Amino acid sequence: MSQWSQVQQLEIKFLEQVDQFYDDNFPMEIRHLLAQWIESQDWEAAANNEAMAMILLQNLIIQVDEQLERVSQEKNLLLIHNLKRVRKLLQGKYHGNPMHIAVIISNCLREERRILAAASMPVQGPLEKSLQSSVVSERQRNVEHKVSAIKNSAQMTDQDVKYLEDLQEEFDFRYKTIQSLEQNDKNSALIKQEMLALQAMLNTLDYKRKEVLSKIGRVIHEIDVLMSNMLTEELLDWKRRQQIACIGGPLHGGLDQLQNCFTLLAESLFQVRRQLEKLDELLTRLTYDGDPIPVQRPQLLEKVNFLLYNLFRNSFVVERQPCMPTHPQRPMVLKTLIQFTVKLRLLIKLPELNYQIRVKATIDNNRRFVLCGTHVKAMNMDESANGSLSVEFRHLQPKEMKTSAGSKGNEGPHMVTEELHSISFETQVCLYGLTINLETSSLPVVMISNVSQLPNAWASIIWYNLSTNDPQNLSFFNNPPAATLSQLLEVLSWQFSSYVGRGLNSEQLNMLAEKLMGQQVSYNDYQLSWAKFCKEHLPGKSFTFWVWLEAILDLIKKHILPLWIDGYIMGFVSKEKERILLKDKTPGTFLLRFSESNLGGITFTWVDQLENGDVTFHSVEPYNKGRLSALPFADILRDYKVIMADNVPENPLKYLYPDIPKDKAFGKHYSCQPNEVSKPSDGGGKGYVPSVFIPVSKILNDSTEPHSPSDLLPMSPSVYAVLREHLSPTAIETAVSCKNFPI
C-alpha cells in the first residue's frame, strides 16, 4: 500500500494536519494523481543536488502533461483547469530554483510519515496533549467570535456616525436659513417656533454625539481587552507550538486564523479612526458649550493609535524559522558560509501594504558574525500560496568575522554548540499618517563551522526549545535548567518520527529511560540535567547518550530505513530483556536491536536449543554503516550462515520475534533472489561466474557467540556449492576458519 493510500485512511483529526501543509506550492491534486511516482523518487537527495532536482522537475511536468492528456479525454473541465494552473506554476515558479520544489515535496512526504507514525502510537505524550487541549481550542473559537462581534460593532457605529452627519447637515441648513432672514422676520411667532425646534434638534445632536463617542469607546475597550488577554495568549501559544514543531513535534497550524483576527482588528481600528476623524470634521462645522467631542475625541484617538502600534508590533512574526535546505530536519542550526532560508509574515493583511514594507535581516550585535547575501527584501502577497503578506529570505549566509589578532574566534565543540545567536529583522510601516517601527527575531540559533558539530548543536536546540518558551534567552546555557524526563522522552520519539518516519513505543522509551537513569525508575516527574543528556559519558563508554542516539538515527536514515518504518526493528532493548523475550520462543526466533557499546551499530540475537534441552542465545557482532554500505541489511538476514561444529553451514534465522517468518517480514526488501547453486555455464559477463556476498560465522562447541566481523566471510554461491560437492562438512569448517582462505 502506498504511503498516500495510508494517509487517506487516517482519522479526520490527522487528515486535518495533512491538509495544513498542502497548498499552492505543492497542490494536493498532484500528490493524489501522481502518488506512486512521487513516492518512488528521491526528493531528499534532489534537495541538495541542483542537476538532479532539475531532472525531477522536468519529469514532474511530463507526468502532469500525461495526466492532463488523460483528463482532457474524459472532459473533466475542473481538473483540466487545475492541472493547467499547476503546470504553469511548476514552470514559472521553480524553473530557476528546482531545488526548492524538491525541498517542499521532501518535507511533505516526511510530514506524512510523521503523522502516520503519530497515528499508530496508542498514547499521546504530555507535551502533545498540552498543545491540543480543549481549553486552547475553546479560546480559539472565543477569539474568532469576539473579533467578529467587534467588527460588526464598528460597522454599526459607522451607521450612527452617518446618521449624526445627516442630522447635523439638516440642523446647519435650518439654522442658516433663519440667520438669512431680515430682523423683522426673526421676531415672528413662526420663527420663534422654529428656534425652539432647532434647540430640540441641537439637544438631539448633543445626545447622539455622546452616544457615538460612547459606542466608539466601547469598541476600543473591547479591542483592548481582547488584545491584552485572549489574542496575546493565542499568539504566545502559536509561538510555543512553533517551537515544539521545530524539534519534531506536531505541525503548528493556526497562523491563518491569527492573521484573520489581526486583520479584522486592524480594519476595525482604522474604521474607528476614520469615525473619529469624521467627528473632528463635524466639530469644525458646529460646536457649543458642553460639546463632548473636543473633550473625549483626543483621548480616544490616542488610545486607537496606541492599540494600532501594539497590534502591528505583535503581528510581525517569523513564520518559518532559519533552516539550511540541506538539513530540513535540523532547523536553527546554521553553518558558516552555507545558505539558509527564513520566512516572515505580517499578520495584518492590507492591500495598501503590498510591496511597501522592506525588511532588513541582521545577526545579533556581538560583531562575531555577519550576514552575507540579499538581506533586504520587500514583503508582498504574491509569493505565498494563501496570499499572506510575507517575505522569504533564501540566500542568507552567516560569516564569521576575524578577530583583531587575525584569527577566528573560539571554535571548540562545546563553546560553539552551546553558544546561542539570534537573527533579527526590522522594518517600518507608514500607513494613514502613522509610522510604526517593527522588530522581531528568530528563535535562538546555533552556529557551526563543521558538520561534525551538527549533532551537539541540534541537542542544544532540542534542550532549549523543550525547556523554555522564552524566545530570546541567549544566555540560556550559562545555567541550563533540568528537563522533565517524560517530556524529553516524548521529544526523543519525535526525533524518530520526523527524521526516520516512525516514533518509539512505550517499551522502547522505557529502555532509553533506563539508559539515562541507570536503573528501573518511574520517570514521570524525574528531572534530567543537560550534562547527563549531552556532556557526560555513559557508564563505561567513551561517548554520551546523545551521541549514541544520534548515531542510531543516522544509521537508520542511511541504511535500514524501510525496515525501521515497517516496525520490524525492536531496536531499543537491553541484552537482559532480549533473552527474557526469546527464551520461550521457537529455536531460530530472532530480534534486531541497536548496539549499546558500538556507535551506530545494529545486531541480531537468536535463540537455539541444545541437545539436552537447554536454551542458548547467539548474538552477532554489530553491523555498522561501513559494512552495511557494502551489503544491505535485509540481504544479510537472508543469506547469513553459521557453521557449528561438524554441521553444514546453515541460516539459523527463521522467525522474527515474536513469530513472523523471516521471508514474510523482509522478503520485499531483498535486493535480489540468491541462486543456491550457480555453475560457471549459468551466465555472467565474459565467462565469469556471478557472485554474491554471504556472511558466515563459526560457533565452536564451547562458545555461544559467533566470531568477530573479520570471520564473517563473504563467499559466492558457486564457491559454496563446489565446497558442498567436493568437501566434507569438517573440511568446509577448516577451510572457512583458515585465515588465508581465498574469498
TrEMBL record:
One of its GO terms (molecular function) is DNA binding. GO terms for biological process: cell surface receptor signaling pathway via JAK-STAT; defense response to virus; negative regulation of developmental process; regulation of apoptotic process; type I interferon-mediated signaling pathway; type II interferon-mediated signaling pathway. SUPFAM superfamilies: p53-like transcription factors, SH2 domain, STAT, Transcription factor STAT-4 N-domain. It is found in: Cytoplasm; Nucleus. Residues 564-666 form the SH2 domain. The keyword Chloroplast does not apply. InterPro entries: p53-like_TF_DNA-bd_sf, SH2, SH2_dom_sf, STAT, STAT4_CC, STAT4_DBD, STAT4_SH2, STAT_linker. Keywords: Acetylation, Activator, ADP-ribosylation, Coiled coil, Cytoplasm, DNA-binding, Isopeptide bond, Methylation, Nucleus, Phosphoprotein, SH2 domain, Transcription, Transcription regulation, Ubl conjugation. CDD domains: SH2_STAT4, STAT4_CCD, STAT4_DBD. One of its GO terms (cellular component) is nucleoplasm. Belongs to the transcription factor STAT family. This is Signal transducer and activator of transcription. It comes from Falcunculus frontatus.
